[in-house]
């Protein structure tokens, strides 16, 4: 599927919300008929379950027992368990567009999704959206529910924040953009309080951000920011990288998964007022001792001027991967 909506429909088919023991069928038909007639008839003694049908408790046991063939795997999300149990106890809630009102957390990982389409707006209660390990290169904020509090886009191909920042969800608390293709300084201008007034956690790790001073000037406007990940960016090679960030963002509690203790903050006090220290260059020296399997140019005799013999030229390309 190319869109989030298409991937969600495939996800629903995988959950089998209309198949035994979920949904409404011959295995629980009288139970739901009785619910619809409760208002019309006075309450009386509970009738026995007809032959061939199951009680809601028995159906739930089939979902929860780890030895049951209908049980979900242990690593499934709480949202998947919730949907299947709702499909047992109140399958009418999941009919038509009802399923979009129930879902508060949506996780679609490694499903080849390329587009965050406007179909997401049907999820009017959605608070958490996890779309890691897909092929998303651009996100349009107009397609994101306004109720969103967590947006995780790790391991995608996002290289531009302009569409995401046009009208982002106002209550967003975590934004995960690690392992993408962000590069500065133009992208860093989108990371201010004007766009993310309630952001608590920001993951920008393993991108191509280079302007530490520019980034810090933007992040310092995020008054609620407490968790920041920047490791894996070129700017993290600057010798005073951690100290400069710790002193520049006094409300930060965790930087690159390491807690900031008071003694560390005291140690780096004053670095924020010395931006010239962040302009140091990082240099990598590579020495090649020996290369095997390549013809030695010295082994070929130089041709005399005017010779009509063939000329053999060798070209070599050396690639360094860090």
Automatic annotation (TrEMBL):
Top-level lineage group: Eukaryota
Keywords linked to the UniProt accession: Leucine-rich repeat, Repeat
SUPFAM superfamilies according to UniProt: Outer arm dynein light chain 1
Entry GO CC: cytoplasm
PANTHER family linked to this entry: LEUCINE-RICH REPEAT-CONTAINING PROTEIN 51, NISCHARIN RELATED
Protein name: LRC43 protein
Organism field: Dryoscopus gambensis
Gene that this polypeptide is encoded by: Lrrc43
């Amino acid at each position: 599927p190319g869109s989030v909506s298409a991937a969600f429909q495939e996800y629903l088919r995988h959950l089998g919300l209309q198949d035994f023991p979920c949904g409404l069928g011959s295995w629980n038909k009288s139970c739901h008929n009785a619910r619809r007639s409760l208002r019309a008839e006075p309450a009386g003694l509970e009738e026995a379950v007809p032959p061939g049908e199951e009680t809601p408790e028995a159906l739930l046991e089939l979902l929860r027992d780890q030895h049951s063939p209908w049980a979900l795997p242990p690593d499934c999300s709480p949202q998947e368990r919730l949907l299947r149990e709702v499909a047992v106890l109140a399958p009418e809630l999941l009919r038509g567009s009802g399923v979009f009102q129930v879902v508060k957390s949506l996780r679609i990982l490694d499903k080849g999704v390329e587009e965050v389409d406007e179909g997401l707006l049907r999820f009017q209660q959605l608070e958490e959206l996890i779309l890691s390990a897909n092929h998303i290169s651009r996100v349009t904020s107009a397609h994101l529910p306004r109720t969103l509090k967590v947006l995780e886009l790790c391991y995608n191909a996002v290289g531009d924040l302009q569409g995401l920042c046009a009208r982002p969800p106002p209550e967003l608390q975590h934004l995960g953009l690690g392992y993408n293709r962000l590069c500065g300084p133009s992208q860093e201008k989108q990371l201010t309080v004007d766009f993310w007034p309630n952001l608590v956690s920001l993951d920008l790790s393993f991108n191509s951000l280079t302007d530490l001073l520019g980034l810090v000037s933007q992040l310092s406007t995020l008054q609620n920011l407490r968790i920041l990940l920047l490791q894996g960016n070129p700017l993290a090679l600057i010798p005073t990288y951690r100290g400069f960030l710790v002193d520049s963002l006094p409300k930060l509690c965790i930087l690159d998964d390491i807690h900031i203790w008071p003694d560390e903050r005291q140690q780096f006090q004053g670095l924020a007022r010395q931006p010239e220290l962040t302009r140091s260059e990082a240099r990598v020296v590579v020495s090649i001792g020996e290369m095997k399997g390549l013809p030695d140019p010295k082994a070929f005799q130089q041709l005399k001027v005017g010779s009509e013999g063939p000329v053999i030229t060798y070209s070599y390309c050396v690639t360094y991967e860090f």
